[in-house]
Design goal:
Helix 4 packs across helix 14, helix 7 packs parallel to helix 13 and helix 11 packs antiparallel against helix 12. The chain is mainly α. Helix content is 75%, strand content 0%.
Length: 292
Amino acid sequence: MTANNINSPADYKFPPAGSSPSQEKAWVKPTLIGIASGYLALVLFIPMLNVFYQAFRKGFEPFLSNLTSPDFLHAAQLTLVISLIVVPVNTVFGLCAAWVIGRNKFRGRTLLISILDVPFAISPVVAGLMIVLLYGRVGWFGPWLEAANIKVIFAFPGMVLATAFVTLPFVAREVIPVLEEVGTDQEEAAKTLGANDWQIFWNVTLPSIRWGLLYGVILTNARAMGEFGAVSVVSGNIAKKTQTLPLFVEDAYKQYATQAAFSAAVILGFLGVITLVLKEILERKTSIKEVE
């Protein structure tokens, strides 16, 4: 190597004095934060504040009176009953599906996972229409159900089916990654020591997946209580009969009972806040468990 090939200090181009790349790009971070904050304010914070303002602008007593009306109480009760049915059913289904997918390698596994994600991919309104085409009076199973005097569409069973469909993937989708990450070493060790399948599930598998399972249950419950599209199609939205809390909000607003509509919306928003708090707690629990 000759001396001519060695770069001299004069060959380097130094930035101007008093400036640095971090200083030159200092405006990027505040700009992005401002854009994100402005967008959230427009689509989330301002509408949410307006809902609370409209609900309480006439005072606290009118707000409470709206929450004690017969239509609201029936809608809240129906929403609660549907959730009490759908959440346990989809929890059991999600555990079974997660076990099959997370613990086995078989042909068609990817297709099964894709089918499990169908409720995420299609509109809830389309899901409700599918249920109508299957169980309606002129649907595939309509004549048989009518002969047996079983009413599904515009009745409670159809609302349960619609809610179960849209909440189907949550538990399975949260448990499958946990099962795959935990592996099978502990289960195989328990089996070697003489434990049966039920004992392995309760004492080894369930403690390992409990945070993912609870996370999925919370998401399922939140979606079940707030579902509108699919339930709207199959219910008929009949007050005091087939009207859930989200449908009550829409119907009250259309009937110019805006105070009652916003009061019910506050309750749904409060349920959403509870869901977010529980979600944050479970995420922290999960992160602590991973660190341990």
